[in-house]
Amino acid sequence: MGWMKDETGLDKTPANFVPLTPLSHLARAARVFPRRTAVVDGAHRKTYAEYHARVSRLASALAARGIKPGDVVSTVLPNTYAHAEAHFGVPASGAVLNAINIRLDVATVAYIFDHAETALILADTQFLPLVEKALEAMEGPAPQIIEVPDADAGHPATGRYTTYEALLEEGDPEAPWQMPEDEWESIALNYTSGTTGRPKGVVYHHRGAYLITMGTPISWRMTLYPIYLTIVPMFHCNNWCHTWMMPAVGGTLVCCREITATAIYDAIADEGVTHMGGAPIVLNMLVNAKDEDRRAFDHRVEVFTAGAPPAAATLAAIETMGFHVTQVYGLTESYGHATECVWQDDDWSDLDAAARAGIKARQGVALPNMDHITVMDPETMAQIPMDGTATGEIMMRGNVTMKGYYKNPEATAEAFAGGYFHTGDIAVQHPDSYIQIADRAKDIIISGGENISSVEVEGVLMHHPAVSLCAVVARPDEKWGEVPCAFVELKEGAQATEPDIIAFARERLAGFKTPKAVFFTELPKTSTGKIQKFELRARARTL
Amino acid sequence: MGWMKDETGLDKTPANFVPLTPLSHLARAARVFPRRTAVVDGAHRKTYAEYHARVSRLASALAARGIKPGDVVSTVLPNTYAHAEAHFGVPASGAVLNAINIRLDVATVAYIFDHAETALILADTQFLPLVEKALEAMEGPAPQIIEVPDADAGHPATGRYTTYEALLEEGDPEAPWQMPEDEWESIALNYTSGTTGRPKGVVYHHRGAYLITMGTPISWRMTLYPIYLTIVPMFHCNNWCHTWMMPAVGGTLVCCREITATAIYDAIADEGVTHMGGAPIVLNMLVNAKDEDRRAFDHRVEVFTAGAPPAAATLAAIETMGFHVTQVYGLTESYGHATECVWQDDDWSDLDAAARAGIKARQGVALPNMDHITVMDPETMAQIPMDGTATGEIMMRGNVTMKGYYKNPEATAEAFAGGYFHTGDIAVQHPDSYIQIADRAKDIIISGGENISSVEVEGVLMHHPAVSLCAVVARPDEKWGEVPCAFVELKEGAQATEPDIIAFARERLAGFKTPKAVFFTELPKTSTGKIQKFELRARARTL
Ligand SMILES: Nc1ncnc2c1ncn2[C@@H]1O[C@H](COP(=O)(O)OP(=O)(O)OP(=O)(O)O)[C@@H](O)[C@H]1O
Ligand SMILES: Nc1ncnc2c1ncn2[C@@H]1O[C@H](COP(=O)(O)OP(=O)(O)OP(=O)(O)O)[C@@H](O)[C@H]1O
Ligand SMILES: [Mg+2]
Ligand SMILES: [Mg+2]
Questions:
Q1: pLDDT per residue as tens digits for the range B471-482
Q2: CA of residue B345 to ligand 4 center, whole Å
Q3: How many CB atoms lie within 10 A of CB A497?
Q4: Which ipTM did the prediction report?
C-alpha cells in the first residue's frame, strides 16, 4: 500500500477531491462549448448553454414539486430531447432516473412503478394509455404524471396533465445542481430485459456512469465533436451511457424517435452523423434498405453493435458502405458495453473478408474502463483454457459494474460471488483471449452429461427452408437427464412436420444434439425482441 | 444526495469497486495488445507482453531488495526505456516514484534525497557523478544505487554498481503486482521547478494519475494506437502522465534521450510519430531546423505545448509544416496539463493566421478530467469579470490536483484555501471564459497602487536590438511602494546603457511601468530554464 512515511496534510479536500459524476460533463460543456449544438430532435436544436439551462429548470422544477434526493423519477419516453434532458435533470435534482422500456406490457410497467416506488413519471403522449393502465394496476400510491407531447410526431398534448414545457417554466434556468457528495450515490435504476425471468432492478452509481464515458471514446475512436445518433433506446442501459458522454467530447446528440432506414440515412447525410450504436438488426435494415430510402455520404460512420453477434454476411456488406463496425457486448448490469472486439490492425488487416467477419463475430476483450473480464469455471472460479473450445461463464470485475439489484440483496450477493460479476453468459476464449459467446448459462442443455449449446442447434434449424424463427430448450428426461426440444415458427405459407425437422437436424448434428421433439408455435418474446426461453422450458415440461 | 430508500446490499464489493490506478492500463494492455510495440528506444523495441514482464521483474526485484510499500524510489534518468518501466515497476512494488530533474545542481539533488528519504536510486551512467556528489552532500543515510548504462548513447556501465538489467534478472516476470487498496495511495513525488523558491515535493495519488490518462485522449484528439514521442522529460510531472496513458490507448512510446531537431524529425519520419508534447522552444527548434536536419512526412502530428505561450510567428510557421498545435497549461501540482486552448472549429476556422495565433496564445479552459478552473480574486474568491482586462489568480478544483506538498501541511493548507488550488498565476479571462496568463502572482509589481505585469514590461524590452534576455522585478520604494527594476543580458558584442534602455521603454510604456533602474548581468535560471525572479528581487533590494 503506497502510503508514504508522512502523509500529514495529504487528505481529501474540496480542491483535490470531487465525486465523479457525468453531471460534471454538462456543467463543463456549458462553460467550454456554450454555442455548440448539443441536441437535435427535428426542429428542436439547442446549444450547450441552452441544454444546461433547460436541465437546471427541470432539476429545480422537480425539487419544487417535492421530489427529494434519492426519490425515483421514471420515464416512459422514446429517444427524444426530453429524455436526454431527463438524463441530467433528474440526477441534478438528486433523484434517481428510472427509464422504462416503452414496449413493455401493462403488468410489468405496474410492477416496476411499485418496485421502484416511482414518485413522478415523465410520459410521452403516445404511451400515456400504457402508463394510465399501469397506474390502475399498481398496488402502491400513484406517482405524479408529467406529459411530454410530441406534436410533430403526431402526438399533441391531451390537456389532461401538466406538460413537460410547462414543468420547465416552473423551474429556474440558473438553479444550482444537487451534485453527489459521494460518487457511490445512485444515479439510475434500470430494469433488465426479463429474458430469463422477472426483470431485475439494476442500480447504477455516479462513479460508474462517469467512468464508462471516459473509456468509451478510446474504444470508439472518437475525437472531439462527434455527431451521435441515438438508435439504442435511452431506456436500455441509458443508451449505453452515451447521452452522458456527449458533453465530455463536445458532441451533438441527434435524437431518433422511429428507427427506420430512412431516418438513419437522413441523419447521416443531413446532420453528418459520425457515431451510432444499434443491434445487428439495425445493420441489416441499412444493408437491405430500398434504393429510395438511401442517402449518399462521404465520411466514415463508426458503429457499435451489440445484443447478438452480427451475421457475417451483414458485416461484409455494411463495411463497403462507409460504416466501420465494432461488436461490443454487455448487460444492463454493466451499464451497457463492457467488452469490445478491438480491431488489431497489425495482425488482421491482411485477412480476407470472411476471416475478418469471423473475428468481428467475437465479443472481444474488456473496455479500458473495466478491470478484468474473462471466462471462468463458475464453480472453481478458475480461468478456462483459452483454446476456442472449452466453455465457461463470462466474469467481470471493474468500476462499471452495478451497485447491485434493488431490494434484492440475495440476488446481488449471488451475482457477485467470488469477487466477480457472474454474467450468466457461456463463452469460449480464443488463444488471443478474445471472448466468444456460446450460450446463456440457463439455456445450456445437459444431456447424458454432455453440454449442448442451444445456439448451435438453433443455428442448424435456421438453415431449414421452412423455418422462420426457432428456439431450442431442455426438456427433462428420465434416461438422459435433459434432451433438446425445439419450438419453431414457420415462414408464411411454408410447411414442415416434426419428422422433417428432426431428420434435417440429424444430418447435420451429433445424435445427442438432435432435438427429440419439435413444436410449431409462436415464440414468446421480451419487449426487446429476445426469446423468453424460461417460458418455453415451462411449456416443454408439460408437453 | 442520491441514496435510494433502500440501499441494502448495494455496497462496494471486489466485483464492482476497483481502486483507480494507471497500473491497470498496462495490465490490460498486456492482455489485449500483447504483440503490439509498446516501447521503442533505439534498438530496444518491446511489445506489451514484454513490457509487462519487465515491469513485473522490476517490481519484484525492488521488493526482494527490501523496498517496502510507501518507500520512495528516485530516478535520475533521461527519457529512456528504463524510465518508462520505472513508471509502472516502482508503483507496482507499492513504492512511490520520485523522478528527479537531471539538470539540477548537487545541493538540490541532495536536498531532495534527504527530504524524500529515498530508499533506492535508478541512475543513468551519465548522471552518476551528480548522484554520487549528492550522496556525499546528504545528511541522511545513503540510498542504494542501481546503474542504468546506455552504451549506445556513449555511457557504458562503470562496473561499480548493480546494473539495471542485472536487477531485472533478480526479479520474476510473472510476479503479481502490489495494486493500491485505496486510490488515494501515493504513486509519485515530484518536486516543482523551484522558480519561486525552494522546490516543493508534490504528491500524486493513483486516482489522479488514472483520471488524467482518461481525459487527455479526448483533448488531444487521440484515437487507438497513437505513436507518442517523449520530449517532455519523464521527471517533469511524469511526462504529463503520458507514459501512464499509452497502454490505455494501445500506443507506442518512442523514447528520445537528446532533444534535437534531427532526433524529432527522424522519429516522425521513421516511427510515424503522431503525438508529442514540448515547450514552445521545441517548436522553434523544428521551425528553424537546417534543411539537412529535416525529414518529409505526410501525416499530421498533434502537439501539446506548455511552459510558456508559444510566439505567434512560431505558431503560424509550424502549422503549415504538418503540425497541429494546442497550447496547454498546468503545474507540477496539477500533474501537468490542466487547461487546454480547445479549438472551436465552428467559430474560429475562418479567422486569418494572426487572429488564429492570437487565440492559440491563450491557455484556455479546463480539461475534461478537471472540475472547475477559473480566475478569481484570491482574497474574496469571487469570479473576476470575463472582459479580457481584469486580472485575478487562476484557481483549480478537481481530481487531478495534488494530494499536497510532502511534509509541508502549512503550504498545502495555504495552497488549498477556500476549496480551490491557488496556482500563483495571474491571468485575465476573455468573454468566452478562456484564460490568458498575465504573470505570476509573486512577480506582479505594485507601484503607487497600480499593478504592473512584469511580463508586459519584459515584452517591450525584448524588442530593444541589444537585449538578448531580460527580467523585470519589483524594488522597494519609499514613495511608490514598489518600482520596476530591470535585469538585462545583452546580445554578444552588443552595447547599451541604462539611460538607453529606460528611454526605449519610456517611449513605449506608461511612466509608472518604465523601469527605474537597469542592471546588466547574467540571469539566474532554474534547471528547466525559467528565470528565478526571487533571486533577482533579493538583489534588487540590496543594489
Ligand atoms: N454482442 C452480444 N452478443 C451476444 N449476446 C449479447 C451481446 N450483447 C448482449 N448480449 C446478451 O444480452 C444480455 C444482456 O441483456 P439485458 O441486460 O438487456 O437483459 P437480459 O439479460 O436479456 O434480461 P434478464 O437479465 O432479465 O434475463 C447478455 O447477458 C447477453 O446474453
Ligand atoms: N502554457 C503556459 N503558459 C504560461 N506559463 C505556463 C504555461 N504552462 C506552465 N506555465 C508556468 O509554469 C508554472 C508551473 O511550472 P512548474 O510546476 O514546473 O514549477 P514552477 O512553478 O516553475 O516552480 P515553483 O513552483 O517551485 O516556483 C506555472 O505556474 C506557470 O507559471
Ligand atoms: Mg441478464
Ligand atoms: Mg509553481
A1: 999 999 998 889
A2: 32
A3: 11
A4: 0.92
